[in-house]
Amino acid sequence: MKRRDFVKTAGIGSAALMSFPSVAHAVTGRMLPPAAPKKIGPPAETFMILLQGTYESVERCGDLGLSGVDLCDGSFSTTLIYPVSGLDAKVKKQDNGNGDKAIGKFYVQFAGMLAVYDLPSGALKMEFTGSNIATVPDGRGGTFFVGTFELAITDATGIYQSFAGGHNTMVDTLHQLADGNFVEHCYCIISH
Prior knowledge:
The strands form two sheets. The protein has an eight-stranded antiparallel barrel. Residues 1-38 have low confidence and may be disordered. A hairpin with a 2-residue loop joins β6 and β7 (122-137). The protein has helices at residues 3-10, 20-28, and strands spanning 46-57, 77-85, 94-95, 101-102, 104-108, 114-119, 122-137, 143-156, 167-176, 182-191. The protein has two domains: 1-32, no CATH class; 46-191, no CATH class. It is built from two helices and ten strands, in the order ααββββββββββ.
């Protein structure tokens, strides 16, 4: 039943649906200050994250402060990042609707060389430098790409600045479905 139908059926006026705090706010016009962003500590010398989910086109893009990165140029696809080890336990996590808690977004150029990690309190830019990948048919018209990718960290912001010049090994199982969509399951081992 829709809210308006419930209100009509129950005979409740719309004013009765307002909570006391919202009425007080409307009367006083006072706004609460926004919550201060939580600072997290630096990551471990080597930390691990998981890239997981279906890749989507980038709809909301912004400037992460990384040189030579334009997430709005149409060349990037994105999926979610989850913590595994080596990151501060106080990292703010966002529920993806499945009870899993994502901490950021991963952006990749399937027809390019760049990968970008938008993480709490900073970001990382990387370039692919090598791979050891095998292809395996999934039996339903799609393909698994299984193996490792090597990346060089070429730029970093925030608490990840010391990782510039570092390295990332991606242990990947990328599934290209028969419809052309990609589903990611990749562990990233990021080090100085």
